[in-house]
Amino acid sequence: MAARILVVDDLLPNIKVLEAKLKNEFYRVTTAQSGAEAIEKIKLEQPDVILLDVMMPDMDGFETCRRIKSNPISSNIPVVMVTALSDVEDRVRGLDAGADDFLTKPINDLALFARIRSLVRLKSMTDELRLRDQTGEQFGGVSANESINDVSGSKILLIDDDPSQALQIKTKLQEIGVQVSIIPDPAEAVESTENIDYDLIIVSTQLTTDDGMHLCTHLRSQDKTISTPLLIIIEDSDTDLLVKGFDMGINDYLMTPIDSNEVVARVKIQVRRKRFQDALQAKGKKSLDMAIKDGLTNIFNRRYFDIHVERIMANSAATGKPLALMILDLDHFKMVNDTYGHQSGDEILKQLPQRVIRLVRPTDLFARYGGEEFVIIMPDTTVLNAASVAERIRRAVEADDFIIPVPPGTLHKTVSIGVSVSEQGDTTKDILERADKALYHIKKTSRNRVAVVTKTPVKK
Length: 460
Description:
single chain; alpha/beta; Alpha-Beta Plaits; 3 domains; 5-stranded parallel β-sheet; 17 strands
């Protein structure tokens, strides 16, 4: 489902131009002609991204942004300020107000759309972490603190072989208590990420010995740095490279010549955001693991699923985005316990999630439903995509034998998977029953298959 964009501008012609461009890219667009109207619409519609004009009467964009970011309901919604102002001071003022970016008119459409895609991905991840935090509170956990403003003590890796530029950045960041490691050599820099957990990595795209964007791609593909914020340094006119960067997963950018105050503003945004996300994850893990994890398989248990699935369903209904559900059942599992003992059965149950979890996203909910049944909820996923993932899971389970502690030492096992997708008016019970019906069909007719049941025909 397309993301929802709120366009805020006091001039109707400006709104119409942006609205037409965004709708042409299949975004859903809401508009407001003042800061006050925008704040009211945010309460009602919870957009995914806000495009906010600066020069508005009564309440300008800076003040509107500050109010949006100070409200817990809207603080995590990305804001892009759009204005004719081009001075660095104005850009820094916007970033200090809480904006995620500051685009100068005339807007480059490719850069705008790339930035929107990047921010939508970011908000999707943050929303899921917040949902999990809320579920954790329901279990008695402590809510993560969103007001993580102090960035002192954070560790930043700067990969830049321009000594003057690197020193300028390091000197300015040290003034706010940030630890900066300058490593000009890309290979050495990558090696350092194996031993140090950085809060932010800054990469110059003007390296003389390597391709900065290729380096970013490598960092984004590594387990240690897959979620570490990346900020690139680019030339002012290199819009094509900026678009490429956003699409491959960078978080922010600086344009040369570097402005020291803008460095501080952008670094603060990225470090604060990472600390908030880290806090959400740490709080959830610390306070909930014992209550929400299945003791045998170490994935979410049925109790957690029953509570969290309702939040996911409510969020899906509110956003209009589909969610898919699949139920996995180990074929002929009773035979394992009867023939090889319950210890062997337990070993298979522990090994199955290890094969499945690498095939689902961090935002998907994977839980043990009961006995040898497992359930996966996949937000923002069509039935065709879910069926494709289910087939990959089925093949992964079938591909390798499971290790058991008694002769013959290994066993070949398969799974059957029933798939459904939420449709308008569905309850959790509805989507579960359809997935269960699909699974029952497999069990009655064959095994080791994927089956889909929907209310309406699937369009291919």
